[in-house]
Amino acid sequence: MKTTSHMVEKEIDDRAVLVSLVTQKQKRNEAIAEYSLQELVKLAETAGVQVLETMTQNKETKDSKWFIGKGKVDELKAMLEELGGNTAIFDQELSGAQVRNLEAALDVKIIDRTQLILDIFAQRAKTREGIIQVELAQLSYLLPRLSGQGKNLSRLGGGIGTRGPGESKLETDRRHIRGRIDELKAQLEEVVRHRTLHRERRKKTGVFQVALVGYTNAGKSTLLKQLTQADVYIENQLFATLDPTSRTMELPSGKEIVLTDTVGFIQNLPHDLVASFRATLEEANEADLILHVVDSSTDMRNEQMRVVGEVLQELGAHQKEQLTIFNKIDACSQEEREMLTAEGEFLKISAFDQEDLERLRIAIQEKLMGESKEFRIPADKGDVISLMYRIGEVLETDVDGEDMVFKVRVNKDDYVKVAYQLVAYDQQAKQGQQEDSEGEIY
């Protein structure tokens, strides 16, 4: 099965009406429901869809047959005919039966939020790893819904919801799809194996890894470019970059680290996608420090931070050392800036302000290298003195009698391994110094 069908040029532009169902449970937080619909508009535009109109229904619970009420289906049909729409995009995930029923009633292509996000990922994937992960997520999503994909799978002219795995194959053979999923998982395991080897090599060299994570369009790629002069694609749209990009960054001390930009998170990120992109998102899990980049200019920043926190928890990376970066403060008023706060340490910056970037570099250095410590080591202990240069950055050295005095900004992990040894020599040297001092008094 080929993954190149998303490159097929669209014969008919997608003209869509966007539909959102707000249930009694969701109505308790109407702001989030409204934001989700606004986000769906951006997702549709990112996928190249012409958005004609949006429609919202408040209903106690979703309809098992139509998802929305039957009366709303008739209203949607009339709206599509009046506006010349050929697609209906729903803000929530639909079952195969609901898709089939809606297609029969509306005679247009039916797409849900998950399928729309998968389609954008299919457009954005450029590396072999990204393409494998997108196809795996698409097939995992489509397999239980094959019976409800009639019109979607028969339209071979391209367009949203039909890019990626190859429609005619999906229609004809479930077993072939399961076989393809197994094949893709095997390929992905090989990719993961190579990625793990690269990580291990990086760890052996002692290079720190820092991962940029955050909601999509928070400015992670811009920050990567500004900090490392990386040649990365930057656009004011959702999921502008998909494949992880790693670049070398120099700290104020001169020490080099690896900074990695990861895929952006989003509300209701499809579980199939999280599972398929686990290898990519593992960059956050393996990092020595996570920089959580937040778009401080949006009113929904707290909700976005919550979503990122949930995904990090799902990945098992929520207990990693973190630094929250409130980005885009140049787009905030003074009052809005003062309201920005987060658990733990945080910085408020603009990615285009050089002073802010320097403050960020210093903060990263302090997080990675830790606080400075002073050690007194006997001058004849060459092996112990060499440890000083391995556990971090030597800031100052001085000679005091028969001892060497070191001021070192220590690497926390490396220091833990040898702390007992250094503390013992430090105490021994200080004890000797005290005895010499007492001898002079008498």
UniProtKB/TrEMBL annotation:
<dbReference type="InterPro" id="IPR030394">
    <property type="entry name" value="G_HFLX_dom"/>
</dbReference>
<dbReference type="Pfam" id="PF01926">
    <property type="entry name" value="MMR_HSR1"/>
</dbReference>
<dbReference type="InterPro" id="IPR025121">
    <property type="entry name" value="GTPase_HflX_N"/>
</dbReference>
<comment type="subunit">
    <text>Monomer. Associates with the 50S ribosomal subunit.</text>
</comment>
<keyword id="KW-0460">Magnesium</keyword>
<keyword id="KW-0547">Nucleotide-binding</keyword>
<keyword id="KW-0342">GTP-binding</keyword>
<keyword id="KW-0963">Cytoplasm</keyword>
<dbReference type="Pfam" id="PF16360">
    <property type="entry name" value="GTP-bdg_M"/>
</dbReference>
<dbReference type="InterPro" id="IPR027417">
    <property type="entry name" value="P-loop_NTPase"/>
</dbReference>
<dbReference type="InterPro" id="IPR032305">
    <property type="entry name" value="GTP-bd_M"/>
</dbReference>
<protein>
    <recommendedName>
        <fullName>GTPase HflX</fullName>
    </recommendedName>
</protein>
<dbReference type="InterPro" id="IPR006073">
    <property type="entry name" value="GTP-bd"/>
</dbReference>
<dbReference type="Pfam" id="PF13167">
    <property type="entry name" value="GTP-bdg_N"/>
</dbReference>
<keyword id="KW-0479">Metal-binding</keyword>
<feature type="domain" description="Hflx-type G">
    <location>
        <begin position="208"/>
        <end position="372"/>
    </location>
</feature>
<comment type="similarity">
    <text>Belongs to the TRAFAC class OBG-HflX-like GTPase superfamily. HflX GTPase family.</text>
</comment>
<dbReference type="InterPro" id="IPR042108">
    <property type="entry name" value="GTPase_HflX_N_sf"/>
</dbReference>
<comment type="function">
    <text>GTPase that associates with the 50S ribosomal subunit and may have a role during protein synthesis or ribosome biogenesis.</text>
</comment>
<dbReference type="InterPro" id="IPR016496">
    <property type="entry name" value="GTPase_HflX"/>
</dbReference>
